[in-house]
Write a structure and sequence with these properties.
Elements (H helix, E strand, L loop, with lengths): L13 E2 L24 E3 L2 E6 L3 E3 L21 E5 L2 E3 L8 H15 L5 E3 L51 E4 L1 H7 L5 E7 L4 E10 L5 E3 H6 L22 E10 L6 H19 L1 H9 L1
Parallel strand pairs: 4-11, 8-10
Antiparallel strand pairs: 1-10, 2-3, 3-12, 5-6, 5-7, 8-11, 9-10, 9-12
Amino acid sequence: MRRLRKSVGVLGTICLCCAGVAGAPSDCKKPAGTASQQPWKADNALVFITKGLAVDADGAPNSYLVDGNGLSYTCDGVAAIVDGKRVTRKTDPDHWNELCRQAWAHAVSSGDYSNVAIFGMLTGEKNQPLVQQDGDPLPGTGYISTTTMTIPDTPDKAQRHWVDATKVPYIVLTSSFTNANHVKRGDVAVVYRPKTGTIAFAVYADIGGDLGEASVKLHRDLGHEPVTKPPSVPRAKVGIADSVVTLVFPGINVPGRLDAAAWNEAIAKAGKDALEKWGGVDRLRTCAN
């Protein structure tokens, strides 16, 4: 069996044009008629293909800033409530953003947050978003940005309690996906970008509305810069437009660590081991086809 090779300077990333596994299975066992975005099971892995990869900056200290100039737009983590219901991109694609901005401006000026649903930031009494304090990276200027996964043995009202999207490679899954397939926070994933032949390793760390979203760090591990350049406000909005294959391994779990570098190493090791045992990069290529 040939060894998997890491590409230079990218932790946990492999160039598939340079690596392979001799004798690996040559199929993905994809059920006939299954749409590419619909996950399917191939041995101990869950597989899905998405037409692109969006960016998630949640958990980063500069994701949501008080002045609105964070990596995420405020309305990425907030929704207006109208007639008792959240107004989202799906329910009202033409007006959701305008309604959110109006509701947020009113909430900030009045201190009444009852007409906004806040899901990207930590909230306190009366649904008010909590601002980072002394000991946090951006005291007074950044809201505490949250993720579904948390870091053990850290204060629950500190920014370091949450998984930093700029330091940890993670994927975003839907609640229906995790519930149906018994996926736990910290379970390992392998992400392959056929266009560039690169692969990166990650953990499941955040819930979202759609499959096909990953942290800033995972994008960079795939060789893609997801943050816009000056002179505009830096935003984590430059997604990958080409197809991406994701494998999720339920039960192969890497618990969170405060030391991001050590956690990255553990994720890469677990991901490589899981991929090799599953069938390696040759089998992964067939999933993309």
